[in-house]
Amino acid sequence: MSATNLTETPEVTAVRDKDISPGRWLGRALAFSVTGLFLVFFALPIVWLLLAPTKTARELLLNNPFSFGAFSTLADNWNQLTGFQNGIIFTWLGNSAFYTGAALIIALVVTIPAGYALAMTDFKLRRPLLILTLIVMLIPNTALVLPIFLELSAVKLIGSPLAVILPFSFFPFGVYLTYIYFSTAVSKDLLDAARIDGAGELRVFWKIAMPLATPVIALVGFFNLTGNWNNYFLPFVTEPGRKSPVQVGLAELLSNVPLFNPTSAGSVTIDLPVLALATLVSIAPVLIIFLFSQRFLVTGMTAGGTKE
Amino acid sequence: MGYTFSSGYTVLLLAFGVLPTLYAIFLAFTKGGAFVGFDNFAKVFGDYRFFPAVQHVAIYLVVYLVCLTLFVVLLALVVHAIKVRWISTSIRFLYYIPGALAGASSVLLWLFLLDPSVSPVAFLLKAMGLESFVQTVSIDNLPVIFTVIAFWTGAGGWIVIMYGALNNISNDVMEAARIDGAGPINTARYIQIPMLRKWISYMGIMSLAAGTQLFVEPRVLSQASKGVVPPDYSLNQLAYLFAFRQGDFNGSAAISLILLVVAVGLAAFFVFRGGLFERD
């Protein structure tokens, strides 16, 4: 083994050296620095955010931005955050979990069968439904916020959990993903075979189509959950006060930070490291989901995205 | 059978897609239930805050779309050229991870980064002559600041999508180019970028439509800067003010409708002319 390696290595490097002209070498150096620069740009703020809550307000201003403070300071900051308005942060987090969880369940229950029906069955309204889905899918979700608010206000639902759960469960992008998946990855013959064997439509869907659709169910769930967790505008207008999810609460917290808000009305003030900790806490669930689904995201997302 | 399976979704589509749109149309053309034609629109257009808001959003969109297209394509090409698999995967993942921070969280994080007193890149801000947070978020800097925030959270996802599209270019084509002596730049220019065109325009239209809806970034910055960033900076903020500060739902609906028409128009143009979704 080592003998063959020894004989091969010089050859390989010789070929490479010959290949790389000065121009191409310069190109590589350029590509390398561009990648490095953007890595710093994307990663540095997150690293800073992970370290900031371990410092006191004074240390945050004076110490090296990338130094680690102390675990005891982290505990102090945590206590200050959870002490704010008797632990309202937990109420906000609970609201977020409830809204996004309920919306996720409804979204999956209505989205997967709809995508399946559009891909695998024929019915009169199929094409209009598909076109409408494509158009609505491309509308940014903030575009409908005020009209949805007005509609919900007309039926007196503002302030009820349903005022965010139901709009969050409407997920045309998920229908489109499921539709693409079924129409490209699952053959109709397979379903027909099951029908000939005497299985009813519901059984065919549940026993055959659903198990095959696991990857797309995960993908739809991921996008629905992360998108809704981070949504700000809709809950901001429909869920005031203690019913707010954490994203809206976070902006609320900001008004108690003297540095950004010198005339803050509240008697309890929030230090910068505590605000950083709150930011971290608010995104922790999504960040954890991201970390665990790393492989599936970087490959799975393109699998869904590039099928034409 | 198709009707049963799609019924739940259809109800939601009607309730939260079609109905709010119809309701907004109704409100935009009426006042107190009576038809008033284009009066609401005339009032909105005549409002002294309307055209500045249009201008703000337009400038931001130009800066953002140019940066997004340029850098996403460049970074995707570079990442795609990396042959060591784990390096390429890790870089894509690191680019992608800020996507976990969207909404208020990302703006809050950038509040810190833009404040020279705590920012880890304070030396950069100071080198640009920005000594305080209020100076940094002055109104002329906002298009660039919003671009940085939006790019930071959103570019990674697009890079992953472009990377996937680059992977779909067949090896034969790339091989042929190499044999013909094309270097990375010529390959990118004559083969890869033309084949990405569909995805680039998809990204452009989606980001254009989404960018018109600017709300959370100026709102949080406005809250943090005590009025240095005006509360009526963007069109959506103006629509919000109409509805909740002036109690003028008709005017608010008129602005929402304008924004909706822009978004749907762009989407429809893409669906029917772009051909990305043609499958049957």
Q: What can you tell me about this protein's structure?
A:
The complex is a heterodimer of chains A (308) and B (280). Chain A is built from 16 helices and no strands. Chain A is mainly α. In chain A, helix 14 (246-254) packs antiparallel against helix 15. Chain B has 280 residues and is mainly alpha-helical. Chain B folds into two domains: 1-37, no CATH class; 48-103 and 139-274, MetI-like fold, CATH 1.10.3720. Chain B contains 13 helices and two strands. Chain B has helices at 2-28, 39-46, 50-81, 85-96, 103-113, 122-127, 133-136, 142-167, 171-179, 184-211, 216-224, 235-244, 249-274; strands at residues 30-31, 34-35. Chain B has a two-stranded antiparallel sheet with strand order 1-2. In chain B, a hairpin with a 2-residue loop joins strand 1 and strand 2 (34-35). The mean pLDDT of chain B is 90. Chains A and B meet through helix 2, helix 5, helix 6, helix 7 and helix 8 of A and helix 1, helix 3, helix 4, helix 5 and helix 8 of B. Chain B: InterPro entries: ABC_transporter_permease (IPR051393), MetI-like (IPR000515), MetI-like_sf (IPR035906). Chain B: It is a multi-pass membrane protein. Chain B: Keywords: Cell membrane, Membrane, Transmembrane, Transmembrane helix, Transport. Chain B: Residues 59-270 form the ABC transmembrane type-1 domain. Chain B: The chain crosses the membrane at residues 12-38, 58-81, 93-113, 144-166, 199-216, 253-272.
Q: Give the topology string of chain B: H per helix, E per strand.
A: HEEHHHHHHHHHHHH
Number of helices of chain B: 13
Strand order of the largest sheet of chain B: 1-2
Number of strands of chain B: 2
What is the global morphology of chain A?
globular
Keywords (chain B): Cell membrane, Membrane, Transmembrane, Transmembrane helix, Transport
Main location (chain B): membrane
Membrane topology (chain B): Multi-pass membrane protein
Transmembrane segments (chain B): 12-38, 58-81, 93-113, 144-166, 199-216, 253-272
